[in-house]
Write a structure and sequence with these properties.
By secondary structure, the protein is α/β, with parallel strands linked by helices. The chain is built from 13 helices and twelve strands.
Length: 353
């Protein structure tokens, strides 16, 4: 699962913003813009991991200035513009809205500040990009659901609960999942869930149950764990027992606990430490005017920019059978965090330790 992390590149210059960079030595300031604080990963993992890696790469002299947009694209643009005004040496941006951020990315470029797109491929003149293979995430989710349904896949409908249309990753998850599911299941209802919010997924699921009938639903594709929680609440509220298999993503603690309890079938574990470390390495490299050639071996295109140096980190299907070998082994959670009193008996049965 581990992805080896390359050193921060050679002294070769990469792109106009790198050429304009004057920070070949001395303390660096890296701006970090994250999209929201409802999903546990951003504050719990991404922020501290990026801060830690920047310190390591700069002998403790570099610092990260941080802002969270709380799902507000306009606020994120203002945060980015403030960091440009304050002359950070590089920006790491996880965009609320990949299109809306493009103007701020352009302002950064014009100011000689390189921008690394983190987790979501922002538009505008991006210098580097690190994420997971998002179509593969959808394929993993879709295949897990299909495998779990087996012959039951033909006995009824599935509901697809996709992510927000403002998030380019959501379209990729959907595309990957449909590449597996279409022709093998009947998609009875499908939703693009506003702002990824669990309460919106809950309302959508209640609508699907009303439209299709609870006895007709054999499975639910949920694009992430937060929405899965809202979906499962709706399924329980409708009296569905046993629950149909529900997918997820992000390996949030509540999601892992629902997997232990048998309420959520699977999640997608994405090794956040690897992704965060690569983002920090890219940001420090471009801040110094160094090439990303030794870090990024792939080039991807956005809607506005061609040939962006990119790294895509592999993902893993997380089920009740591999909790020890994924989130516990990688130090994301301890067994004690997962196996609280409510879940201890189930953990013991599964051998989670």
């Amino acid at each position: 699962m581990a992805v080896s992390l390359a050193a921060c590149g050679s002294a070769k210059e990469s792109g106009d913003s790198a050429k304009e960079s004057k920070k070949s030595d001395g303390p660096l300031t890296i701006g970090l813009l994250l999209p929201e604080n409802q999903t546990a990963r951003y504050e719990k993992f991404d922020k501290p991991l990026i801060e830690k890696r920047v310190r390591e790469l700069t002998d403790g002299k570099g610092k990260v200035v941080y802002a969270n947009a709380k799902q507000d694209a306009s606020a994120q643009n203002q945060q980015a513009d403030t960091m440009v005004t304050n002359k950070v040496d590089a920006l790491i941006v996880d965009a609320v809205d990949s299109k809306a951020i493009a103007g701020s990315v352009k302002k950064a470029k014009e100011a000689g500040i390189p921008v690394i797109a983190f987790d979501r491929l922002a538009e505008g003149p991006i210098d580097g990009y690190v994420s997971f293979d998002n179509e593969e995430v959808g394929r993993v989710q879709g295949q897990a659901l299909l495998d779990e349904l087996g012959p039951k896949a033909k006995d009824g409908d599935i509901v697809m609960m996709n992510g927000a249309i403002t998030d380019p990753n959501a379209a990729l998850f959907k595309k990957g999942a449909k590449s597996v599911l279409e022709g093998k299941v009947t998609i009875g209802k499908e939703y693009d869930t506003k702002e990824w919010k669990p309460e919106n997924a809950n309302a959508n699921m209640e609508g699907a149950i009303s439209a299709l009938g609870k006895d007709k639903i054999v499975g639910v594709y949920s694009a992430n764990d937060g929405m899965a929680g809202g979906i499962i609440t709706a399924l329980k509220g409708a009296g569905m027992n046993p629950l149909p298999p529900v997918t997820g993503q992000d390996a949030e603690l509540a999601g892992v606990q629902r997997i232990v309890a048998g309420e959520q079938f699977m999640s997608v574990y994405k090794p956040y430490p690897t992704e965060a470390a690569i983002a920090a390495e890219m940001a420090v490299a471009v801040a110094k005017g160094e090439s990303l050639d030794s870090i990024a071996k792939t080039k991807l295109d956005s809607a506005t920019t061609k040939g962006i140096p990119s790294v895509l980190v592999p993902v893993v299907s997380l089920t009740k059978d591999n909790i020890n070998d994924t989130v516990i082994k990688d130090g994301i959670y301890t067994a004690g965090e997962i196996c609280t009193a409510k879940f201890k008996a189930k953990c013991d049965t599964l051998g989670v330790k």
